[in-house]
């Protein structure tokens, strides 16, 4: 009785449910009009958020390679610190990405484990946004004591919230992904399928005031929303009939109706996830690879299934392991291999689907880390910082360049000097005061996605505190 | 700094609008202490709203000595009144409003004192209008009860106290004439099919015979279920009740319901007569099951037959007192001793799993919930954990978490100031919210902010009824600003987690001391003067310069503890966790009032608060408000299912190992590991659709994926046979439910479904749902009673009626 249970999973609308019953169920939920939608989205755009959990040390992700600036880096992270990435051309050295137009003649390299991303960058498919982070208002080293700074800087949970809510001044329950979905709902009118899909739990980023995000695991798409224990026997059919009926009754009590509707949404979406699309693109069999594969499969289903046919989608995935207080060189390299390979495969998958110009993938992380190493030789790492560099990927991105806002050194890339002009103070350890805010970073993505200029402040309420709303790595798209 | 409000606060303002639906008004809600000696002198608390100093209390017209201790409580000493009767309690505000608790006060029978084991059931019988005693202020608890008297009792229990049977004909029983005592009742009992008489040829009723324990079993259950009910065949439970005895099935069912445990040893004594005292117990335990079941849904991790019986035998207040005194299950140091923070090289996989993973402390949560006697303490402690949060996200080791959990358990019925103080200095909290590294050189504001925002006050000023205080323009008034936090953060400086020699088996090593409060280094403490709550309610509180860290901390905790928001803030959170997501402002105000003053002038009593929450009519009365109730959070849902059907190990030879957390996680709730200091789900999450503005915080973790996992858990415990024992895995013993009774009932699906309805839904299943489930059970082969039981339990378990506690 207890063995082999897991082999017997069936989809929620299992064989027991007739096509007519499935139709009736969809009709009830207002999903029926999905069938009236065109077979393919007319103006598809998707944002894909990769959250690098733990606080990625972007000081070793992107490193200046011109002699003067590499020397600064090497001073802060000398060879004997155990945290230095060798120069381009050296064994285990940086991968050159040349001189971005925005930084004059300065040259840069990516971490050697990011080979695929360096290639995509050279193909202008990836851009770098440098020194971005949570801000309430613009801050400099000179005025930091007089200005309002984010609550609980350097704290994981709080800075994750700051990044995901885009509200560094106060704690709120919704995230900017969810709010962007709220204001672009009109683009998806008529569809009962949620705009936001998360493969990594309903993180704050995904939560809006309106729709609830779809939360699914990795694995075969037609198996992620299943009710176990239904094999099509007559009493299974009777049980399914009864439980489906039960969600339609006893609706006088508000919370009972809400529970029924939540389950009904799951059952309906389970029905919509009726196939497990296949892709030619091969994804690495890693955690992040599997998550991004799931994203690509939902995208393919959306393009091919009249039950979805969304014009706007937002996805959220997460990669853990970036809290590198110790053993950073080994651990971060491993994370980067996974990241680079998975993002590369995902880009290829969007190309395979013909939407590489309609999907923008971007990274977030808790915070950057101290330029000054922590720990002693052999178990070296870095501590919690503030501003950090991030990747933005897709054919809509003006790639092959760096974007940002000039800081203490007059350039968009911080001066890699502990206690230098871009540090929190001259006594600090190389924690960069962000020069571009999460609001501006997110607003650039959201405007491309289709958030109108009018709606932008409801998604990013602090955006008015900054001199410009967007950076030029993307151009605003049409709103609905 | 005030900036534009984001979307999240739309929920809050919707809530505020919802809460303002009923302005707090004068009302007399309930009395705590409902009975006492006829001579008077009993001190009671009368709870309500807008009591004014000088309000008078009368009991059945006689004046009670009364004193208004707050706008929500009057302390009264009951006057003497004739014994064995009910009296209205009336409260009159001076020159103003008046309110009544009808029959609020019961004077004890002269022969059934408060200490009598029959007291509570006898009071219940009187309140039900079934009996008014045997005359002269007595109940005659030791007298036997005749079959004629029983007829009256049963029909009043079945039809209500006002029921009047049609006149007797005298033509049914040869020994019951039309004008005999209780003839109308006896003939009606026959007409309704509850009795077939005591003998035939001619048909007789034996009205003057004492009723036997065996006969009583059948009578009670026929009234309880309806006359068409046929109990399942007897299995042989009592040594003196043969399975062939016609009354055996009834007697055994009464035992299964914990109405009786027999007459001693393994015997039932079916031929013994029943006294009037015993009858009161039997009738109360049979006919008041719905209220008891519903009470236990709120006050325990889930009703079970044995707890229902125990509760009904005692009454609410004695049950609550017993819960207060019950041994604490908790997370004792002996089970979770300190280990070095760096895992010893000798620590193998098992050692690691036991001492460096959350495995055992999560299992302990479930075994405590399933088997611990301190059910109410556990529910309150869990509610407090969701307010005063420490998470395994940052404290992954069980020896780090256990001392924090003990602070909550030990003080769950204590004073909230002790929780605020002890939690502040708890090392796990120090680590979680960064107080342990906060120094005067680099003060960290994290703890300063969270203790106010989440543990005690909230960001907006509250009225005592929990509604938000607004300025003239309708904007909420903030409780504090960044400058206030900047001042507070200097208080919490200089504390650090000490080190201590490790206990065995790591005696040579040094451990961080997670057990004792954090230590304090004066050199790192900011000793400048501090002014708390400057410019805000609660302030200014000036801490002079050069105080010790402990002095500063005590005065600071006092300042927070005495803030006007704490009562309504905590009242709202605890009510949300135990009773309803959408309490009326009046209810919140009454509970906050109990926090502000427990009746003897003490502020912060959690015990007073907990009693105020569960005894309030808004908790006790069957709800009519459609937004009442709350979605069961995952751990409550899981424990409800497991406790109702006596979860044990897979082979049912011993207790479950408690490895249930993997299911809680699938349902969206990692036990002890909330994703942030915001706890497991957002405080102000609106139930979908959010536009309706109805709070449903637990819906924050019920989504497409987790909603189906709820059903899949029930499937696991039913069709998939429970959680398999895996001697080398995380479930060495496994977990299974007891289907012995359900399979007995399976031959009659209606009986099976009715049984589940009573135990799982306190009898509130809708007719439509009942009919649908019976149809589905009938689809299962009658020759497979276990599968029928699975079918029925699955369908009740997944029903939204069961997901939401109302």
3D architecture notes:
The complex is a heterodimer of chains A (480) and B (806). Chain A is built from eleven helices and 14 strands. Chain A has helices at 19-28, 67-76, 115-122, 156-165, 176-183, 234-246, 254-272, 287-304, 328-352, 438-449, 456-459, and strands at 45-52, 62-64, 95-98, 108-110, 126-133, 196-198, 214-215, 312-319, 359-365, 369-374, 381-384, 388-393, 402-403, 436-437. With 806 residues, chain B is an alpha+beta fold. In chain B, the strands form five sheets. In chain B, strands 1-3-6-5-4-7-8-2 form an eight-stranded mixed sheet, covered by helices on one side. A two-stranded antiparallel ribbon of chain B has the order 9-12. Chain B starts with 7 loop residues before the first helix and ends with a strand. The chains are: A alpha/beta (480), B alpha+beta (806).
Considering the chains and any ligands shown, give keywords for the structure.
heterodimer, A: 480 residues, alpha/beta, 9-stranded mixed beta sheet, 3-stranded antiparallel beta sheet, 11 helices, 14 strands, B: 806 residues, alpha+beta, 8-stranded mixed beta sheet, two-stranded antiparallel ribbon, globular, disordered N terminus
State the gist of this model:
Chain A is an alpha/beta fold and 480 residues long. Chain A is built from 11 helices and 14 strands.
Write the layout of secondary structure elements.
The complex is a heterodimer of chains A (480) and B (806).
Chain A: H1 19-28, E1 45-52, E2 62-64, H2 67-76, E3 95-98, E4 108-110, H3 115-122, E5 126-133, H4 156-165, H5 176-183, E6 196-198, E7 214-215, H6 234-246, H7 254-272, H8 287-304, E8 312-319, H9 328-352, E9 359-365, E10 369-374, E11 381-384, E12 388-393, E13 402-403, E14 436-437, H10 438-449, H11 456-459
Parallel strand pairs in A: 1-8, 1-9, 5-13, 5-14, 6-7, 6-8
Antiparallel strand pairs in A: 2-4, 3-4, 5-12, 9-12, 10-11
Helix pairs in contact in A: 3-9, 8-9
Chain B: H1 8-19, E1 27-32, E2 35-36, E3 43-49, E4 56-59, E5 62-70, E6 73-77, E7 86-92, E8 98-107, H2 119-127, H3 147-159, H4 183-191, H5 213-225, H6 248-256, H7 276-287, H8 289-299, H9 305-314, H10 316-325, H11 349-355, H12 359-371, H13 375-387, H14 398-411, H15 416-425, H16 427-432, H17 446-453, H18 482-488, E9 495-496, E10 499-501, E11 510-512, E12 519-520, E13 530-532, E14 541-543, H19 549-561, H20 566-578, H21 585-596, H22 606-615, H23 617-620, E15 630-631, H24 634-644, H25 661-666, H26 704-717, H27 740-745, H28 749-761, H29 767-778, H30 785-798, H31 800-803, E16 804-805
Parallel strand pairs in B: 2-8
Antiparallel strand pairs in B: 1-3, 3-6, 4-5, 4-7, 5-6, 7-8, 9-12, 10-11, 13-14, 15-16
Helix pairs in contact in B: 2-7, 3-4, 3-5, 5-6, 8-9, 8-28, 9-10, 13-14, 13-20, 14-15, 15-19, 20-21, 20-22, 21-22, 26-30, 28-29, 28-30, 29-30
């Amino acid at each position: 009785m207890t063995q082999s249970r897991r082999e017997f999973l069936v989809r929620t609308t299992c064989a027991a449910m007739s096509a007519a019953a499935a139709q009736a169920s969809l009709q009830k939920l207002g999903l029926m009009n999905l069938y009236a939608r065109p077979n393919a989205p007319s103006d598809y755009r998707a944002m894909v958020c990769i959250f690098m959990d733990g606080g990625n040390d972007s000081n070793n992700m992107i490193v200046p390679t011109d002699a003067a600036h590499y020397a600064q880096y090497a001073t802060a992270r000398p060879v004997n610190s155990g945290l230095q990435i060798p120069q381009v051309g050296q064994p285990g050295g940086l991968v050159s990405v040349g001189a971005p137009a925005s930084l004059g003649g300065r040259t840069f390299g990516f971490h050697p484990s990011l080979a695929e991303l360096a290639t995509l960058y050279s193909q202008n498919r990836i851009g770098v946004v440098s020194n971005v982070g949570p801000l309430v208002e613009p801050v400099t080293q000179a005025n930091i004591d007089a200005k309002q700074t984010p609550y609980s800087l350097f704290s994981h949970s709080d800075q994750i919230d700051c990044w995901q809510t885009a509200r560094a001044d106060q704690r709120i329950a919704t995230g900017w992904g969810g709010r962007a979905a709220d204001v672009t709902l009109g683009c998806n009118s008529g569809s009962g399928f949620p705009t936001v899909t998360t493969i990594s739990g309903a993180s704050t980023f995904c939560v809006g005031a309106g729709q609830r995000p779809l939360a699914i695991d990795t694995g075969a798409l037609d198996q992620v929303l299943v009710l176990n224990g239904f094999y099509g026997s007559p009493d299974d059919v009777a049980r399914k009939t009864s439980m489906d009926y039960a969600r339609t009754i006893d609706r006088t009590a508000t919370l009972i109706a809400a529970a029924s509707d939540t389950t009904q949404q799951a059952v309906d979406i389970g029905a919509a996830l009726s196939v497990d699309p296949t892709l030619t693109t091969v994804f690495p069999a890693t955690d992040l690879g599997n998550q991004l594969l799931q994203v690509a499969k939902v995208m393919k289903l959306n393009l091919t299934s009249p039950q979805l046919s969304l014009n706007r989608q937002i996805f959220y995935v997460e990669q853990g392991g970036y809290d590198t207080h110790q053993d950073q060189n080994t651990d971060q390299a491993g994370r980067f291999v996974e990241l680079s390979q998975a993002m590369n495969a995902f880009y290829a998958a969007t190309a395979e689907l013909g939407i590489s110009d309609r999907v923008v993938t971007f990274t977030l992380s808790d915070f950057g880390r101290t330029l000054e190493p922590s720990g002693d030789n052999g178990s070296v790492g870095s501590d919690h910082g503030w501003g950090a560099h991030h990747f933005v990927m897709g054919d809509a991105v003006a790639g092959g360049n760096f974007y940002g806002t000039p800081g203490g050194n007059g350039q968009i890339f911080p001066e890699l000097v502990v206690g230098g002009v871009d540090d929190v103070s001259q006594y600090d350890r190389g924690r960069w005061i962000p020069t571009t805010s999460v609001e501006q970073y997110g607003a650039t993505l959201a405007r491309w996605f289709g958030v109108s200029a009018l709606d932008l402040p409801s998604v990013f309420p602090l955006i008015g505190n900054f001199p410009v709303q967007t950076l030029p790595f993307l151009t605003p798209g049409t709103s609905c | 700094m005030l900036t534009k409000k984001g979307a999240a606060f739309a929920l809050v303002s919707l809530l505020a609008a919802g809460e303002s639906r009923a302005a707090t008004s004068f009302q007399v809600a309930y009395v705590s202490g409902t009975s006492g000696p006829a001579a008077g002198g009993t001190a009671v608390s009368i709870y309500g709203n807008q009591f004014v100093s000088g309000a008078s209390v009368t009991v059945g017209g006689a004046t009670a000595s009364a004193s208004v201790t707050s706008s929500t409580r009057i302390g009264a000493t009951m006057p003497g009144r004739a014994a064995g009767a009910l009296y209205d309690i009336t409260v009159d505000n001076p020159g103003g409003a008046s309110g009544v608790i009808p029959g609020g006060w019961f004077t004890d029978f002269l022969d059934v004192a408060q200490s009598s084991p029959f007291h509570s059931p006898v009071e219940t019988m009187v309140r039900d209008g079934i009996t008014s005693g045997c005359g002269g202020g007595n109940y005659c608890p030791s007298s036997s009860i005749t079959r004629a008297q029983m007829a009256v009792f049963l029909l009043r229990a079945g039809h209500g106290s006002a029921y009047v049977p049609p006149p007797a004909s005298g033509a049914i029983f040869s020994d019951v004439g039309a004008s005999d005592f209780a003839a109308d009742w006896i003939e009606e009992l026959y007409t309704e099919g509850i009795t077939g008489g005591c003998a035939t040829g001619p048909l007789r009723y034996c009205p003057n015979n004492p009723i036997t324990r065996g006969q009583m079993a059948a009578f009670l259950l026929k009234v309880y279920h309806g006359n068409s009910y046929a109990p399942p065949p007897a299995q042989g439970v009592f040594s003196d009740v043969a399975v062939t005895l016609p009354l055996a099935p009834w007697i055994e069912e009464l035992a299964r319901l914990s109405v009786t445990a027999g007459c001693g040893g393994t015997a039932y004594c079916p031929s013994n007569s029943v006294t009037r005292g015993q009858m009161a117990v039997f009738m109360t335990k049979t006919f008041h099951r719905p209220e008891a079941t519903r009470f236990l849904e709120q006050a325990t991790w889930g009703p079970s037959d044995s707890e229902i019986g125990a509760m009904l035998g005692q009454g609410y207040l004695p049950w609550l007192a017993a819960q207060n005194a019950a041994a604490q299950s908790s997370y004792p140091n002996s089970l979770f001793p300190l280990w070095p923070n760096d895992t010893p090289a000798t620590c193998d996989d098992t050692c690691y799993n036991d001492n460096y993973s959350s495995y055992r402390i999560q299992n302990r949560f479930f075994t405590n919930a399933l088997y611990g006697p301190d059910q109410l303490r556990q529910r309150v402690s869990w509610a407090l954990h969701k307010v005063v949060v420490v998470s395994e996200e940052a404290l992954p080791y069980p020896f780090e978490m256990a001392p924090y959990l003990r602070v909550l358990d030990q003080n769950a019925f204590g004073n909230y100031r002790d929780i605020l103080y002890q939690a502040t200095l708890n090392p796990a909290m120090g680590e979680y919210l960064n107080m342990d590294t906060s120094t005067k050189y680099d003060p960290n504001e994290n703890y300063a902010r969270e203790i106010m925002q989440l543990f005690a006050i909230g960001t907006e000023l509250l009225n005592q009824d929990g509604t938000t205080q607004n300025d003239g323009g309708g904007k909420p008034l903030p409780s504090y600003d960044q400058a206030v936090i900047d001042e507070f953060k200097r208080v919490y400086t200089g504390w650090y987690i000490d080190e201590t020699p490790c206990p065995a088996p790591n005696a040579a090593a040094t451990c961080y001391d997670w057990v004792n409060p954090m230590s304090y280094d004066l050199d790192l403490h900011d000793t400048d003067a501090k002014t708390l709550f400057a410019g805000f309610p609660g302030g200014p509180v000036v801490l002079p310069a050069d105080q010790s860290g402990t002095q500063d901390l005590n005065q600071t905790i006092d300042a927070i503890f005495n803030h006007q928001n704490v009562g309504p803030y905590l009242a709202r959170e605890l009510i949300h966790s135990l009773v309803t997501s959408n309490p009326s402002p009046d209810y919140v105000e009454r509970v906050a009032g109990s926090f502000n003053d427990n009746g003897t002038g003490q502020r912060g009593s959690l015990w007073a608060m907990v009693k105020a929450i569960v005894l309030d009519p808004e908790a006790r009365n069957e709800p009519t408000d459609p937004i009442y109730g709350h979605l069961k959070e995952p751990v409550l849902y899981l424990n409800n299912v497991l406790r109702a059907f006596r979860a044990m190990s897979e082979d049912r030879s011993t207790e479950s190992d408690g490895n249930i957390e993997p299911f809680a996680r699938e349902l969206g709730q990692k036990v002890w590991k909330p994703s942030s200091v915001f706890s497991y789900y957002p405080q102000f999450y609106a139930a979908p659709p959010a536009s309706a503005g109805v709070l449903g915080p637990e819906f924050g973790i019920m989504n497409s994926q987790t909603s189906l996992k709820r059903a899949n858990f029930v499937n696991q415990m039913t069709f998939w046979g429970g959680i398999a024992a895996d001697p080398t895995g995380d479930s060495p013993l496994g977990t299974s439910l007891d289907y012995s009774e359900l399979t007995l009932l399976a031959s009659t699906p209606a009986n099976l479904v009715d049984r589940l309805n009573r135990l799982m839904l306190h009898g509130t299943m809708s007719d439509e749902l009942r009919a649908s489930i019976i149809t589905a059970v009938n689809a299962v082969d009658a020759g497979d009673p276990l599968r029928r039981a699975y079918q029925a339990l699955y369908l009740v378990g997944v029903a939204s009626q069961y997901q939401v506690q109302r």
